[in-house]
Write a structure and sequence with these properties.
cytoplasm; Tubulin monoglycylase TTLL3-like isoform X3; 22 helices; disordered N terminus; 3 domains; 4-stranded parallel beta sheet; protein-glycine ligase activity, initiating; 6-stranded antiparallel beta sheet; TTLL_monoglycylase; alpha+beta; D-amino Acid Aminotransferase, Chain A, domain 1
Length: 626
């Protein structure tokens, strides 16, 4: 007995810190519970029976379980079925083999697919300690502070796991003191990477907040030019942290300049009316409202101001503004800006009537042609100057709002001093002219897998899915039911009666369904020619820009979810990157695709380790740094 206790004490020194749960990892040999005395002449099955009974009795004390009658087999507080020698023998054989082959895993969170796939490979689960489960639930947002995606479902499916004969629970108890060689958790802080031994595998990298938070991605993509010749403005909408004073000033300047270009576009589109259904609809809507607004607008002055601002912007790009000294007056004074913006709101937002604008179409169009050559986002900007305001580290669309007046945006942000202090608010240009499906907005959830940061190694999943809004697309309202496609928001809303019947009630399409839609419009080839290559490039560039900030650890991988919108030309625009993307089978689409991506992740990170030619499913290696 003393020898057993001594050995157990030695093993307990090897510890892996699992958040607040304090799980221990010991050496590879099976170790009995410290209070399980062993009889020298007892058989293996008798020893195992005694061990399980002792462990059950020890764990059940806090639950005040009654002592079973003499001759009955002791059961644990989780109501194990009666233990029989054959079951014990089977469990012991599986456990011995798993321990010998270093196949002990631990999963935290609703991942039944991962559990099943690992068990099919001969792995045995060491279940994480459950009494503090509810504590973790209540702190889930804090634990995922570095992630944009906490998942669309809070259901912990491990509670619904099918284990009718209690074999999995029994094996878990038999490996309760063994070293865990594979961790899969939905919380980055569940594992302390500094306590891991090098052979232990985990599914989270440290410091991923450099690109999986909205503020982190916003800041670090600006450094892309140091790693690649690509321009982030070609795939990532302009973004600013409003808590940083220099970025706040840059945003105000951007908003004002965008108001100028939007007004020029408004003049051109109003007169010609040939820029597509979206624009025509907006112009018709504003004409219907125009009679409500009668305040006179100095059209000539507005256009001259807009042209001056745009010309100054072009000169700054050509570095022709370096000869200007500090005493050179600004293009527009603060008073002039206030007058211009108020007039812009009246005309574009309010539909105030203007006359003789056809005289200015030529000069407005000429300036726009010059701007489109240097402004990759001019086509997606629209005419309403809408921006989307996001709390920097919240997930599932929480706290996100759209606004189109500068004073509204600044007032919205200034109203929360906590977020200002922590530099959490970001404001990003909204894509006003997205590709629509049957008049409805959607975004694309695309998975990718990083298996190493040094060298950077990226796998791209060939399958993805679309998430639709429940309401038809319109710029007459900025309600989240129209403009936010997060399933965690839309699943609580009833689809509009005006929405096209071609959009499913569960608000989701697979990529195959979308390609069928494109084919019906003669654009099927664009998926492989434009959409997929654009998404791949955006993912790679985002990772390149943050690579130096990551802590690279071997035997670590991470599955991410990227959210994209498509422009009307099908070019993809990266919206955000998410750690711990939801794997909830919320619809028939996600039930199939989320299962597949989890199984294929294990093919890459486990099967391919043993066999470089192993099948990797729908994962494709798209980048390995040389």
């Amino acid at each position: 007995m003393r020898a057993d206790v001594s050995m157990e004490a030695t093993r307990s020194k090897q510890t892996v810190q699992l958040g607040q749960e304090g799980h221990q990892a010991t050496d590879r040999r099976y170790a009995p519970c410290p209070d399980s005395g062993e009889t020298g002449g007892a058989s293996k099955d008798q020893k195992v029976t005694a061990l399980v009974q002792k462990c059950n009795q020890g764990e059940g004390k806090s639950f005040q379980t009654s002592t079973p009658p003499e001759g009955k087999v002791c059961r644990s507080f989780v109501s194990l079925p009666a233990l029989n020698p054959e079951r014990l023998k089977t469990a012991r054989a599986l456990v011995d083999k798993a321990v010998r082959m270093h196949k002990v895993f631990s999963v935290q969170g609703p991942y039944p697919v991962i559990r099943a796939a690992l068990r099919a490979r001969g792995w045995v689960e060491q279940r994480m300690h459950r009494p503090n489960h509810h504590v973790h639930q209540s702190h889930s947002d804090e634990g995922r502070a570095s992630s944009n995606d906490a998942g669309d479902s809070d259901d912990d499916n491990v509670n619904k796991e099918q284990d009718p004969d209690g074999l999995y629970d029994l094996m878990s108890r038999l490996v309760r003191n063994e070293m865990v060689y594979f961790f899969w958790t939905n919380r980055r802080d569940a594992i302390n990477p500094n306590s891991l031994q090098k052979e232990q595998i985990t599914n989270h990298f440290a410091k991923a907040g450099s690109f999986t938070t909205k503020s982190g991605l916003c800041v670090n993509l600006r450094n892309l030019r140091w790693f690649d010749s690509a321009d982030p403005d070609t795939f990532f909408p302009r973004c600013y942290r409003l808590a940083a004073q220099d970025e706040k000033h840059a945003f105000i300047e951007d908003y004002r300049r965008t108001a100028c270009t939007s007004f020029l576009k408004f003049i051109v589109e109003r007169e010609r009316g040939v820029q597509g259904e979206r624009t025509s609809h907006n112009i018709r809507t504003m004409r219907k409202r125009s009679k409500l607004r009668s305040r006179p607008v100095d059209l000539s002055q507005m256009i001259n101001s807009a042209l001056k601002v745009c010309q100054e912007f072009l000169e700054s790009l050509e570095h022709r503004d370096i000869d200007k000294n500090l005493e050179t007056p600004q293009t527009l004074t603060e008073e002039e800006w206030a007058l211009f913006l108020n007039s812009y709101y009246l005309v574009v937002h309010g539909g105030a009537e203007i006359e003789n604008s056809d005289h200015f179409v030529t000069c407005c169009n000429a300036m726009l042609q010059r701007l489109v050559e240097v402004s990759p986002q001019l086509d997606i900007d629209g005419i309403h100057n809408i921006w989307i305001i996001k709390p920097g580290a919240k997930s599932r669309g929480r706290g996100i709002k759209c606004a189109k007046r500068l004073d509204q945006i600044l007032r919205l942000v200034d109203g929360d001093p906590t977020l200002i202090k922590e530099s959490k608010w970001v404001v990003q240009k909204y894509l006003e002219c997205p590709l629509l499906v049957h008049g409805t907005k959607f975004d694309v959830r695309q998975w990718f897998l990083v298996t190493d940061w040094n060298p950077l190694t990226v796998w791209f999943y060939k399958k993805c899915y679309l998430r639709f809004s429940t309401q038809p697309y319109s710029l007459d309202t900025l309600d989240s039911s129209v403009h936010l496609c997060n399933n965690s928001i839309q699943k609580h809303l009833r689809p509009s009666q005006q929405r096209h019947r071609g959009i499913p009630a569960n608000n989701m399409w697979s990529d195959d369904q979308f390609r069928t839609f494109l084919s019906s419009h003669g654009q099927e080839a664009q998926w492989q020619l434009v959409v997929v290559p654009g998404m791949k490039k955006a993912v790679i560039h985002a990772l390149q820009a943050t690579q130096d900030l990551m802590e690279s650890r071997k035997n670590t991988f991470e599955l991410y979810g990227a959210d994209f919108m498509l422009g009307y030309d099908l070019c993809p625009w990266l919206i955000e990157l998410n750690a711990s993307p939801t794997m909830a089978p919320s619809t028939s689409v996600t039930a199939r695709l989320c299962t597949a991506v989890q199984e294929d992740t294990l093919r890459v990170v486990m099967d391919r380790r043993a066999d470089r030619t192993a099948n990797t499913g729908d994962f494709q290696l798209i980048y390995r740094q040389q």
